[in-house]
Design brief:
By secondary structure, the chain is mostly helical. It folds into 2 domains: about 40 residues; about 150 residues, no CATH class. It contains 7 helices and 5 strands. Strands 3-5-4 form a 3-stranded antiparallel sheet. Strands 1-2 form a two-stranded antiparallel ribbon. The model has no long low-confidence stretch (mean pLDDT about 85).
């Protein structure tokens, strides 16, 4: 009987600690130390939430920089719940077909020759399917398309290049991850820099 009572007491204590005390502590600390991140890193423009800096969004207009593809694309946007990868590998016929289709769409939109390499992050979804970043090379590859679609002159095209370079984020703490560009923040800066550009 004694071991049973000890087990019940232990269950109750651990339930209180892990089910109430710990979550409450983490919530209070996160809200006080990282208020923006704990609120979802929401991006607000003109008093409206336009997205989160932590989540990728579907963008298909040629006047904007395109994000990574997502296995959670429902045809209108990237589905945040549940987020996931496709779990298809390089031996999957479906996976090969989707990668070839994405590569063809990138080349067609930019007018690339078929032998030019497309950065992997423009044709492969991330593990979560919601990665908000692309590589600097993926952003640079899209410069001509965006400039052409917006009707930018050579001087504006140079400004656009500088804008992309200014939006390149360094690896976290200088060592974690790779240089990257947040697509939502880049596209918002694009609209601010060229508000009257033809679309």
């Amino acid at each position: 009987m004694k071991p049973l009572l000890q087990s019940i007491r232990l269950l109750l204590v651990l339930t209180v600690i892990t089910g109430a005390v710990y979550p409450a502590l983490v919530t209070v600390l996160s809200k006080s130390m990282f208020p923006r991140q704990s609120a979802g890193s929401l991006v607000v423009r003109d008093r409206q939430v336009v997205g989160s800096a932590l989540l990728g969004q579907r963008t298909t207009s040629e006047a904007y920089f395109w994000p990574r593809p997502s296995a959670g694309d429902d045809g209108t946007n990237y589905v945040a719940v549940p987020s996931s990868a496709s779990n298809k590998g390089p031996t999957s016929a479906d996976w090969i077909t989707s990668v070839q289709q994405r590569s063809a769409a990138i080349r067609t939109a930019r007018g690339m020759s078929t032998n030019r390499a497309v950065p992997a992050d423009l044709v492969l979804a991330s593990g979560s399917g919601l990665d908000p970043h692309i590589s600097p090379d993926a952003a640079r590859l899209q410069l001509d398309r965006v400039a052409r679609t917006r009707g930018l002159n050579p001087e504006q095209r140079n400004t656009l290049t500088q804008l992309v370079e200014a939006k390149v984020e360094s690896p976290t703490l200088g060592v974690l991850g790779e240089p990257r560009v947040n697509v939502l923040l880049l596209n918002l800066a694009l609209d601010e820099t060229f508000p009257t550009a033809r679309r």
